[in-house]
UniProtKB/TrEMBL annotation, chain A:
The keyword Acetylation does not apply. It comes from Forsythia ovata. This is LL-diaminopimelate aminotransferase. Gene3D superfamilies: Aspartate Aminotransferase, domain 1, Type I PLP-dependent aspartate aminotransferase-like (Major domain). Pfam families: Aminotran_1_2. It comes from the Eukaryota.
From TrEMBL, chain B:
PANTHER family: AMINOTRANSFERASE. Its cofactor is pyridoxal 5'-phosphate. This is Aminotransferase ALD1. Keywords: Aminotransferase, Pyridoxal phosphate, Transferase. Coiled coil: none annotated. Belongs to the class-I pyridoxal-phosphate-dependent aminotransferase family. LL-diaminopimelate aminotransferase subfamily. Residues 71-433 form the Aminotransferase class I/classII large domain. The keyword Transferase applies. GO terms for molecular function: transaminase activity. GO terms for biological process: systemic acquired resistance, salicylic acid mediated signaling pathway. Pfam families: Aminotran_1_2 (PF00155).
Amino acid sequence: MSVIIHQNLSTSISSSTSTFLGHNNLKSIKCSNVSIPGRISGVIKCVATPSAEKTAYKTKVSRNENMGKLQAGYLFPEIARRRAAHMLKYPDAQVISLGIGDTTEPIPEVITSAMAKRSYALSTVEGYTGYGAEQGEKQLRAAIAKTYYENLGIEEDDIFVSDGAKSDISRLQVLFGSKVTMAVQDPSYPAYVDSSVILGQTGQFQKDVEKYGNIEYMKCTPENGFFPDLSAIRRTDIIFFCSPNNPTGYAASREQLTRLVEFAKENGSIIVFDSAYALYISDDNPRSIFEIPGAKEVSMEVSSFSKYAGFTGVRLGWTAIPKELLYSDGFPVAKDFNRIVCTCFNGASNIAQAGGLACVSPEGIKSRHSIRLVLRYTEEKNAPYVWIYFPGQSSWDVFSEILEKTHVVTTPGSGFGPGGEGFIRVSAFGHRENVLEACRRFKQLYK
Amino acid sequence: MHKFPTFSLTPCKTMLQTIPSTMKAQDKDRVSCYFTKVGRNANLERLQYNYLFPEISERELRHIKKYPNAKVISLGIGDTTEPIPEIIASSMANYARSLSTPQGYKGYGAEQGNKDLRKAVAETFYKDMGIKDSEVFISDGSQCDISRLQMLFGSNVSIAVQDPSFPAYIDTGVITGQTGDYEKGSGRYQNIAYMECGPENNFFPDLPKTDRTDIIFFCSPNNPTGHASSREQLEQLVEFAQQNGSIIVYDSAYAVYITDGPRSIYEIPGARKVAIEVSSFSKIAGFTGVRLGWTVVPKELVYSNGFPVINDFNRIVCTCFNGASNIAQAGGLACLSSDGFKAVLSNVNYYKENAEILMNTFTSLGLRVYGGVNAPYVWVHFPGSNSWDVFNEILEKTHIITVPGSGFGPGGREFIRVTAFSHRENILEASERLRSFLS
């Protein structure tokens, strides 16, 4: 028997990330029982290997050293694993998932019936369509430009429809290549850092500070109002900026974003502005970076239907790249992104796009508005996440304690960067009853 | 399919036309152009032309503008034309509707794909080959999978491709930084091993003459030549990979078109230790727009340090992707039901019949034609010609779009690829026009 230990399994309970996965000495291990002492907390699977292959054959292909730099599995599968393990341990407990930001409320019928209609149409001669434009269906691109960027100078052909922000972030990293430097908010959505590591933009992970070399971490804490002190930030080529922020929930003000755009302009940097949660903003804060004058020369925007329309499983998003955004030699960034999209992608699913079109129709917009009201159950008025401070404590320890004592799954802040240590992220995506019940249980625990 | 070029003018008007490797705005054209200080990715600068298929689309569009009354027949881009069988379309419609209900609503799916679908893929295509559902990763199609595999491998590996081959292998290799510069003379990028596949060697590479590379991209049935490798040839390939410690990325997107011969690399003993297989629902089920495919990474496939490739691929899939659309996956599951599979195979046969008609047409004209039997492509030889010239002439004189062979590599320079994906009437009409023109 050989044991295959999936890399993304073994994160230690404490806040420091596991070094287990940095080891490249996975050989066949005899597996007589499943439990392995130490810091592994995931599931070990024993896989039968044919008896003829006792000495494992190895190719002569070197492992991509960038993959070796990654410290642990991607954050959210780890949360999912812990949840699953907990449910096994307490089969009768009513576990409430406020960890992964997964939407729970059904998609409005006006949208799903459009998708059903498109599905049926594909079985007819007149309605069948094959490959779509890699950049997305014309109508949808136009509708996105009109709905979200009217009067901001972003046009139909600046919009690239995708299968979601996560894929877009990686494709953008492929676009930028390994020789760019990048800055992220700390804490932030882990895909920015992880994709940067994979693309070879970073150095090794430094355990003492819990940071990868060569990334500029822009601390966002209660002390600085969750907006970075730009005067203390080194210049980088790319700046990933998410507003409203995942996980802190903070939506940057117009004044702050103006300073960010100025900062980018002075430094000749490119902002990748993640507006996946922009529709949760209830006050006057900008929803798009393009509301800021001058932004088109320094930024692009990534967004998603996931949290707008419950499309987390349907998969649809977009990236907007202004024509004015140019590399140092004057070459338009959008032209290279177009090449990436044509070569490394083949368009979002046509059925999902039909759903997207229905989403941005007047009925669609009306129907989604009512969902957002349901979801806004947090003190945070601009985002579907609550960011709770537990000073002096390890976030993984708090996560585990909450899980053990209340059967509520949250997400430990350090999963989003060292700036998240001491915090817990609670997602507002849940059925109302569950959210209320979770609050009751929290009150019990912390009274 | 019409993929329209999407660029209008930038403020710096000179930016757009052709793409020389360094380009600066002329002072006279500058319209307050602000340049960031971010260097353009040199790998993208290295790419020589547009991706092949958008280029073909653009030419089609120009031709339609030039001849608005001509009935243009597209036998260029390999785009399926026949409707998806109802049993599959209705399962997708039902699934979409269920997302409006509390009991049916689903959010994020597993990034690796729906469990039942992974199982169905393993059982349908890899029965008795020892491939488990946990080794199957559902995706939004091969083109995306190829890129994700390149991200997985990184820039420090060397690659080999068949010449000619599906352009995504080379282009993603360039983008990932695995190659050197393009050499205009040879039509090749440096640092790629081009494995010539032509009539002289029965469209199978001369492996003893092939340099060792880390990765070998191998497509069978081949796009564009249509050649399906025999069992004996694939055994040679696996042995070659084993001797060299290489990893084969085996593209079986067209395997279902094979009349006779191995469909999966895993039919070959030992392949599990050396090969990844990429495949797609596009050409099986007409899912070119729906977007669904899969990649198999066997657990035995390990890097030189013993680390399982599947672990890293799983990490890529979890970090750089968020799963194929759940509606598309519902469709995939319906495809693999017994009625669903029967229904899609009937479309496959329809296209195979088209291929036969095309083969006969070209053969009757005295041309040497290849492929077409185990694949939905016909590969026609015009010795001594330049394939872009032949492409243009055919387009101009018969209003038929094909694909010039050199778009697939220098080995394709005297060939034209004609796809069998079309309505029957178009295939018949095209055949008549070609007969008139070429006889």
